[in-house]
């Protein structure tokens, strides 16, 4: 009986930890192989620690992509692919981290992709928006940025902070060449809800610019 109580206590402790500790996204790298260019995968919550990891991996991917392109010549990648693909599957996280990572994506002219079965929500959309080419086969959802209430900051200061986030997010999307109507759509959705964008929405907001790759022929 004592062992059972101890086991239950351990399960309870782990459950509390899972709720309290921030879950870092997984920034993974896959080198070029065959006619596939380098790929960076970003999964999970976007947190501050991811910026350093992504910066290092992006530099490696950029160097590998130059070798990949030089060795195969232009136009040798599959349709709907970029020189470096950044695949996204995230429900969001820190908006400022996402915008910093997005600026690296744009500086290096990486392509961004939300593959079939993946979701890109909230702050993740700022990563998608940064792609030199953008492909969406999964789902994309938006809402207004969320600010944590620390219980200390006054209502007036919180309002000022939110206005600052709002202005920076709008400026970022304009910097990425996307219409301000996307920002307006985000602001219309409360931070505890999600507006899922239709194929028409994605086209209107210019979140899709790449032709999807042709399906592979069936093996006889």
Strand fraction equals: 5-15%
Query: For the largest beta sheet, what order do the strands appear in spatially?
Result: 1-2-3-4-6
Helix content: 40-55%
**Strand elements, count:** 8
Q: If you average the pLDDT, what whole number results?
A: 80
Rg, nearest Å: 20 Å
Sheet with the most strands, sense and barrel status: 5 strands, mixed
CATH architecture: Alpha-Beta Complex
Question: What is the CATH fold-level name?
Answer: 2-enoyl-CoA Hydratase, Chain A, domain 1
Determine the CATH superfamily: 2-enoyl-CoA Hydratase, Chain A, domain 1
Keywords: Signal
Signal peptide: 1-18
Protein name: Peptidase S14
InterPro entries: ClpP/crotonase-like_dom_sf
Tell me what the structure shows.
This protein has helices spanning 2-20, 49-72, 95-107, 124-129, 155-175, 180-187, 199-204, and strands at residues 26-30, 39-43, 85-89, 111-114, 119-121, 134-136, 139-142, 195-196. The chain has a single domain, classed as 2-enoyl-CoA Hydratase, Chain A, domain 1 (Alpha-Beta Complex). It has 220 residues and is an alpha/beta fold. The strands form two sheets. Strands 1-2-3-4-6 form a five-stranded mixed sheet. 44% of the residues lie in helices and 14% in strands. Strand 2 (39-43), helix 2 and strand 3 form a beta-alpha-beta unit. Residues 1-18 form the signal peptide.
């Amino acid at each position: 009986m004592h062992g059972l109580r101890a086991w239950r206590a351990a399960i309870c402790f782990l459950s509390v930890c899972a709720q309290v500790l921030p879950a870092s996204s997984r920034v993974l790298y896959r080198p070029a192989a065959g006619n596939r260019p380098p790929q960076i995968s970003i999964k999970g919550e976007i947190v501050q620690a991811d910026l350093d990891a992504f910066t290092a991996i992006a530099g490696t991917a950029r160097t590998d992509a130059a070798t990949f392109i030089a060795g195969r010549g232009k136009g040798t990648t599959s349709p709907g692919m970029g020189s470096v693909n950044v695949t996204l599957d995230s429900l969001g996280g820190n908006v400022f981290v996402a915008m910093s990572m997005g600026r690296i994506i744009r500086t290096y002219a990486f392509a961004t992709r939300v593959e079939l079965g993946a979701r890109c929500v909230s702050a993740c959309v700022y990563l998608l928006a940064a792609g030199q080419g953008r492909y969406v086969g999964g789902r994309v959802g938006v809402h207004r940025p969320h600010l944590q209430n620390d219980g200390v900051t006054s209502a007036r200061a919180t309002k000022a902070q939110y206005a600052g986030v709002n202005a920076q997010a709008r400026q970022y999307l304009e910097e990425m060449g996307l219409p301000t109507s996307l920002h307006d759509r985000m602001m219309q959705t409360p931070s505890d809800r999600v507006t899922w964008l239709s194929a028409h929405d994605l086209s209107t907001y210019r979140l899709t610019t790449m032709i999807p790759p042709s399906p592979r022929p069936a093996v006889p």
